[in-house]
């Protein structure tokens, strides 16, 4: 009986199953990408509209491109350390992995141009550059972790600079998104530190250090809820009745709106705290396991937990920016991503 599974063709002779392409790009891990853009948009008061969704699509394409390029560049090493991966196993030709990486990069840059014009291209180009530089040159150097952390920082800032009504200046948007971008970058730095020991296991000091940094990141995220709620469609506008006339008493109808704003502030804090706790509960627990027994298997599990654990961190940062509803949605997606990761490893 003929195999009826979907295939993609590269050239005249090769055919690759779509399931193997999904393995190549670690498809479910891309669920960790939209939260970067959303957290940046929330911090800068950007609306969640078609432009923002286009930038999210661009970032997902560039993430998948990086995964495919990683396997292209590591084909020789993977043939020894991870022979079951699509490229060393022969299920995906090496040239096909490079073609996928190139095609997804072009698609990512094109989506950025369509969605946000020069502003979004200005973020997508350095993001793509960092991805390609990491996979082809920097991975085995001390700059590898810096490149990947920088890529995540740029991804958050890409959400902040999406153009639109009431978008304001680029400089102001970047300043407002600097803290969430920095926290995401710090988290990514811990992942990169652990990932160097996925094959041979780690010295105890490595998971001990990354766990400490993750704990500080969680505390900073949960407690540092910004005073100024993001304005615009992501956070909602402050009712005009809240503004008291100059030199006079507050509007007589202000108590109800004030209660609404107080309730929104409480929601921000609660969702941000819940996201930070979920982040530490997933990623932190995996790091504790690696600390107790820093075997290659436990370190690899910690890296996988950290990739998906980024989602509750993003949710907390989104709530911090004034969008607790979107933050809750990101939190709901996290269990789905964890379930999918059981079928396709994010590492």
UniProtKB/TrEMBL annotation:
This protein's name: SCO3242 family prenyltransferase
InterPro entries from the UniProt entry: Prenyltransferase_related, UbiA_prenyltransferase, UbiA_sf
A Pfam family that the UniProt record links to this protein: UbiA
A GO term for molecular function: transferase activity
Compartmental location: Membrane
EC number: 2.5.1.-
NCBIfam families: SCO3242_trans
Main location: membrane
